[in-house]
Amino acid sequence: MINIEIGNNFRGDIEIILITDFKKIPKKEAEICALQGFSGKSGEFIFLQNTKKFYFALKDSSIDCIRESGALIVRILKKFNIKSASIKGFNDSQKNYALILGILAGEYEFNTYKQKSNKISLKNIYIIESSNKFVNELKKVKVVANSLNLVREIVNTPPEDCTPIKLSSIATKIAKEVGLECNIGDLKFIIKEKMQALLAVSKASPNEPRIIELSYKPKKPKARVVLVGKGLTYDSGGLSLKPADYMTTMKADKGGGCAVLGIMKCIAELKPNIEVLGIIGAVENMIGGNAYKPDDILASREGISIEVKNTDAEGRLVLADCLSYAQDLKPDYIIDLATLTGACVVALGEFSSGIMGYNEKLKREFEQIALNCGELMALLPFNRHLEKLIESKNADVSNVSSSRYGGAITAGLFLGKFIRDKYKDKWIHLDIAGPAFVEKEWDINPYGASGAGVRSVVDFILNLEDKAK
Ligand code: BES
Ligand code: ZN
Ligand code: ZN
């Protein structure tokens, strides 16, 4: 990752100057700019060789725009092989935070498998800022960006190199580095726990499933948050096989599980006085003679029977058993993250995650926190009519809806069946199917996995600590 330092003076090869108003460029330089066709239109940039200045035109000075510009600028600097640069801070913690996040997260590229990787020459960016109020924020932004890039790297890793067992080793290694407790539940454990819905999904895969359990336990915590992540290391659809075009990128179906890992890493480094436990259901959904089938009826850990009508609606089966396990840990809050439905992407577009649950206030609070940290999220409302659509003639519940509409919500309602009354108001479901994998770069996200969900959930947990103070 690029090294960011705060200092009083200009250092490095070039000076980056962000402008929202062309008229603010000194007259002589403005003339050169104009000669070279730079008009100050949003996103335009120009290098002035003799003064070593790099002008970048911002659309406006909103936080969103600053964050995105940080990412754009760093991509340009990489292309031009710049080694170091200075940029004037905003004397505003939130804006500086957004700029640095953009720089650090915008720089990431998945090139681990390329023979000729674009080795980056960009090493240092100096933020010129006289106030020293920014020390804590600087630590946080580095932790969060680092975690985002790590989550992206894991999610981008091809399915053969990131099976449930390999994901367990990755989690074990990260946990050790940051001082988290990590327990891996193997096949024997999963059978003992009667997670038969999860086991059905994994049946046809030669790669055994794992339950990855991470714990951060401060001495006298103010609250306990349990996170649950969908960790489908590959989703072929199972016997309800996905068409070829829909199967590519399904390595990213572990996005929710990996986000949980990234959140846990941030929490271990930021050390809030909140207990946080992370449960990842790491499973591969494959085909084979021993695959689970449409028409099967599964006995879930919670005791609720599930009629399988489509083996591609596997995430909710894995989550049903993980949510059951998570409630035994007596959480004050329970949040699941999952690339759960294509329908969520249809409903909200590829840039937003869906927030679902039974507690209106909690959902709104979460949405606000998400929007504040730059993650787009929107509420998808449950209703009793949609709930009827997952009734089954043969079992307690069906794993798919009888209607083709409202699929993100009916998936959320399915999960809701596995939340005990006592925990209904403590639960939030995040469908991150849209933003978890990026086809064409946007905001601070390069092509590939984005690390969706990490920023919001980290801020939600940090916010709980502030509330308790
Ligand atoms: N992993 C997919 C959902 C998904 C789709 C994530 C596109 C990211 C991008 C999930 O397991 C799935 O296949 N869902 C089905 C459910 C359907 C069978 C009811 C879907 O969305 O089509
Ligand atoms: Zn699926
Ligand atoms: Zn899936």
Protein model, in words:
The chain has 2 domains: 3-132, Leucine Aminopeptidase, subunit E, domain 1 (3-Layer(aba) Sandwich), CATH 3.40.220.10; 143-468, Aminopeptidase, CATH 3.40.630. The protein is built from 15 helices and 19 strands. It has helices spanning 27-35, 63-79, 93-106, 135-156, 164-178, 187-192, 196-202, 244-247, 255-270, 315-327, 342-348, 360-372, 384-388, 407-416, 454-468; strands at residues 3-7, 14-19, 45-48, 53-57, 84-88, 124-128, 181-185, 210-216, 224-235, 275-285, 297-299, 305-307, 333-338, 353-356, 377-379, 397-398, 427-431, 437-438, 448-449. The protein has an 8-stranded mixed sheet, sandwiched between helices. A 6-stranded mixed sheet has the order 1-6-5-2-4-3, covered by helices on one side. The protein has a 3-stranded mixed sheet with strand order 11-12-16. Helix 2 (63-79) packs parallel to helix 3 and helix 9 packs parallel to helix 15. The longest helix has 22 residues, at 135-156. The protein is elongated and about 80 Å long. The chain starts with a strand and ends with a helix. The structure holds ligand BES and zinc ion (2 copies). Residues 235, 253, 310, 312-315, 339-343, 400, 407, 433 line the site of ligand BES.
